[in-house]
Amino acid sequence: MVMHLPITTYSLYAMLKLRFCPHMHDHGSRPENRRLVVEIVTNGQNPEIVEDIISRLGTYKTKFETWLLKEENDRFAYSANEMVVPAITIPKTAHAGR
């Protein structure tokens, strides 16, 4: 949870800023010398939903790159740039005390 907190906080900030200060953003252009990247993270359990999200992102007017972070055991070929990471398994004994 701690690892995701900064990203979650920034996402909420950006969403609110876009909602309440739309005059501050030009949604049709990209800032000079910058790449806009959308990153999707999946464990491979619902590839159809991930593909739907990727296709919906393609309808936006803003130009950006779409990257997908997936586990090595996910064999689905997504329609975005892919980064593969090792799958992490948590031993069942780690949950025993709960």
Would you kindly provide a written description of the structure presented here, covering whatever features stand out?
This protein is α/β, with parallel strands linked by helices and 98 residues long. It has one domain (26-95). Helix content is 28%, strand content 18%. The chain has helices at 5-20, 47-57; strands at residues 37-42, 65-71, 81-85. Strands 1-2-3 form a 3-stranded parallel β-sheet, with helices on one face.
Backbone structural class: alpha/beta
What's the main sheet like? 3 strands, parallel
Mean pLDDT score: 76
Number of domains: 1
User: What is the straight-line distance between the termini?
Assistant: 17 Å
The global form is extended
Number of separate helices:
2
- Described by its quaternary structure, the protein is single chain
